Amino acid sequence: MSVITTHRDGDVLVVVSNNPPVNALGFAVRDGLAKALDEAAADPAVKAVVIRCDGRTFFAGADITEFGGPMKDPQLPELLERLEALDKPVVAAIHGTALGGGLETALACHYRIAVPSAKLGLPEVKLGILPGAGGTQRLPRVVGVAAALEMIVGGAPIGAKKASDIGLLDRLAGEDSLAAEAVAFARDIAEKRPLPRTSEKQAVAEPGVFDAFRAANARKMKGFEAPEACIQAIQAAAELPFAQGLEVERKLIRQLMASDQSKAQRHIFFAERAAAKIDGLAPGTPLIPVKSVGIIGAGTMGGGIAMNFLSIGIPVTILEMQQEALDRGVATIGRNYAGNVKSGRMTEDQAKQATGLLKPTLDYADLGQVDLVIEAVFENMDVKKEVFTRLDKIAKPGAILATNTSYLDVDEIAAVTSRPESVVGLHFFSPANVMKLLEVVRGAKTSDSVLATAMALAKQIRKIAVVAGVCHGFIGNRMLKPRQDQAGQLILEGAKPADVDRVFLDFGFPMGPFQLADLAGLDIGWHRDPTRRESVRDALCAEGRLGQKTGGGFYDYDEKRNRTPSPVAERIIAEFAAAKGIAQRAISDEEIRERCLYTMVNEGAKILEEGKAQRASDIDVVWVFGYGWPVYRGGPMFWADLVGARTIVDGLKRQQDRLGPDFTLSPLLVAKAEKGETFN
Ligand code: 3HC
Ligand code: NAI
């Protein structure tokens, strides 16, 4: 059956799309819509048209899988011009999400009606492009330049209520009566002339609005190409006639579509979805219902992890050994919720509801009936083993036993229990209530049900989960190590901390390794003995330089925490290097990049060849959502594909003598270089 069908409801032609899962505007949909327009134009008995979608959503955009190749006619921009030019009114009836080309279709319609739960947006900027089917020209003409800038450059969808307030919708329908109300509405306006054609309206810009927007959003837009292109297209809408504005839009989208940034961002869109899929899992693997959660350890991680569940209405019992630690942990959770209320992220009632679901305890017996326990105690194998031994005794059969360990061997932890099949790693990132990434660590004996449940639960708490195998540091922290080692070594050899950080900032990371270290505090893991100076960090700590909190670490900081290079830190580093017999020399940015970034790719390739990640794109997801890898560079493995495995191997060979005795080239990386293959 065709994905587009039409039927008559009196004198209204109803056009229905049924193209699961999201009614993307692929060729078949465009072709069907074009034929429906012909039908509407040709039949004098048709007085008005309604376009709506079956299934879970109105058109959620162009079909992204068609990008990158030639697109078959009819193209969406031309189709929408024909739609708008029809001399009979067309009503878009919107439910679910009208996104990208979907909202552009609605904008080309003469009227728009939606259910209150609908969301409308132009998220193209997140794919490194801009709305290329007239969206940059039509939206500002409907909602004004300021609101269009927010929606197109920001990319976040808005709710139907807001859309209605800013004039994007003509009418709201009842949640369950959209189809009927849309037809009734179409009948009401069938004879109204002139037809409200968006392209005939004016987009008026306040003087200075574009530069003010650029200035206000400079930080968010830094490094990205698409936001500036979006602004220029909207500027064209305000300054040029519609047809010329469209030409500007078309030229800009053509450039963006061919850019590496857009390829990278599209890659991440699909990578994020691929990550949810578990290799080798039997279809229909039963999920374990998780209606209550226990957490052991109410420290930095335990508290943040608890909030994920409390916020979606799942009760949490949180356990500590000492009342004082328990009180402290509970107080922090309360403070974080108060902060959420203050910043408008949730209402007071919602915060109250969440904190009301928290049960603090000192007694393991209180964890006896929960469906999932997450351990977040100190990172120490003996402590973890003791906790899991106790847990094994009291947890109900079938309960999932998870560890939040950053590095430790999940199989060794599982082995102290009588049920290693119930044990899994759930590696959250700090702050655990904010960070999107979750590494789900599949132990040698973890059951399919436990794994599948962990992945499903991640989605429920709105995390992006990636399956990792057991190895030291899993995917993310394992790849962080060579980068940190090289950064530390580079400053001993003569690079300044600011040189290394600058290379990372220029690449697009929000922070360099030394900025990050100063922010986190150099005393993490410090043995507090000023005479022991085994690392530069020890030496800095020994002189009271613990990072931002003490006004100095690798950098000096003023009261506002602005950083400047520190002559004192540089002296300490130089003395440390001299004591180790390391000569200082000038170091190029190229060498910093090769030693810090190419070594990460090499480690990523090892993770793949050992089967510790299911696919290269999973590694990209980990780095983009957990470690600030710029999304427009698509993650380390996608970036490696752009740079070329050959170039990376050559670079690593050039640096081989400086990479330390533990460095070895990944055979997989070498093979890719030799065959000219990519990872993704
Ligand atoms: N094209 C092709 N496939 C798409 C797609 C699209 N626009 N949107 C979603 N899909 C696919 C997903 O890849 C996924 O496939 P899978 O099941 O094989 O993994 C499936 O549809 C379901 O998607 P989600 O898992 O994301 O489902 P959710 O219910 O969580 O979310 C959604 C639905 C909010 C619509 C979300 O999929 C989404 O944000 N989609 C992208 C929307 C978008 O960016 N639209 C703009 C496209 S660019 C454009 O329109 C250009 C124009 O200006 C010319
Ligand atoms: P933390 O020191 O802030 O909290 C640990 C808490 O566990 C403390 O409150 C302590 O009193 C409690 N505790 C210790 N032994 C216990 C026991 N036997 N029973 C009950 N409670 C006990 O540590 P943090 O940072 O929360 O780390 C916890 C775990 O999470 C570690 O395994 C760590 O590697 C991991 N992790 C930490 C991240 C971070 O950025 N801090 C990120 C990801 C994982």
TrEMBL record:
Q: Does the keyword Isomerase apply?
A: yes
Subcellular localization is given as: Peroxisome
- Give every 3-hydroxyacyl-CoA dehydrogenase NAD binding domain span: 293-468
Q: Which family does it belong to?
A: Belongs to the enoyl-CoA hydratase/isomerase family. In the N-terminal section; belongs to the enoyl-CoA hydratase/isomerase family.
GO BP, sorted A to Z: fatty acid beta-oxidation
Where does the source fall among the domains of life? Bacteria
Reaction catalysis annotation: a (3S)-3-hydroxyacyl-CoA + NAD(+) = a 3-oxoacyl-CoA + NADH + H(+)
Kindly tell me the pathway this chain contributes to: Lipid metabolism; fatty acid beta-oxidation
List the molecular function annotations (GO) for this entry.
(3S)-3-hydroxyacyl-CoA dehydrogenase (NAD+) activity; enoyl-CoA hydratase activity; isomerase activity; NAD+ binding
Alphabetic keyword roster: Fatty acid metabolism, Isomerase, Lipid degradation, Lipid metabolism, Lyase, Multifunctional enzyme, NAD, Oxidoreductase, Peroxisome
InterPro entries linked: 3-OHacyl-CoA_DH_NAD-bd (IPR006176), 3HC_DH_C (IPR006108), 6-PGluconate_DH-like_C_sf (IPR008927), ClpP/crotonase-like_dom_sf (IPR029045), Enoyl-CoA_hyd/isom_CS (IPR018376), Enoyl-CoA_hydra/iso (IPR001753), NAD(P)-bd_dom_sf (IPR036291)
Q: What is this protein called?
A: 3-hydroxyacyl-CoA dehydrogenase
Q: How does it assemble?
A: Monomer.
Principal localisation: other
PANTHER family, per database record: 3-HYDROXYACYL-COA DEHYROGENASE, PEROXISOMAL BIFUNCTIONAL ENZYME
Residues annotated as domain 3-hydroxyacyl-CoA dehydrogenase C-terminal:
473-557, 594-676
